[in-house]
Amino acid sequence: FKFDNIFMVAADVRHDIFHKDYINSGDANDENRTELQGKKICSMLVSGSNGKPKGKVYVLTNGADIALNVSRFIKLKLKSRLGAIGAHNRRKWTSRWTEDKKVTHPDIVDCIENVGCNRKFSLFSFPGKIAHGYTFYPQIVTIYQEKHF
Asked: Taking phi first (over 0 means left), then psi (-120 to 50 degrees means alpha), and beta for anything else, what does residue 130 get?
């Protein structure tokens, strides 16, 4: 299958799935290793005449997503989740997250874009900012429409 765009909404996968260090780890001869999942997601985008992806993988994030923040502990790997952190991020020495596209694998860095969603949720409505299942919220559907080509 090939897609114009891919939207990873509240993605409950490890936050470093697109990082070069993670992708390059593991057995280099094993084409089915889980470390290649990030590159495989990007390979599902339709390519233009130049061979590069026409669309993008949009990572919709909500740092207050309660399900994703609990998930990192339940999975016992203590890896923050992509849907809470976003792609291209690394921890600073202060343990805060900062965007650094150099951590992303160079083959896929240009086809991934973060879209912050937290500000789109109301603080005063349930589930509000801690929402997890927001795939079809009207304010999120607007993002799909804006990114459509």
From this structure: alpha
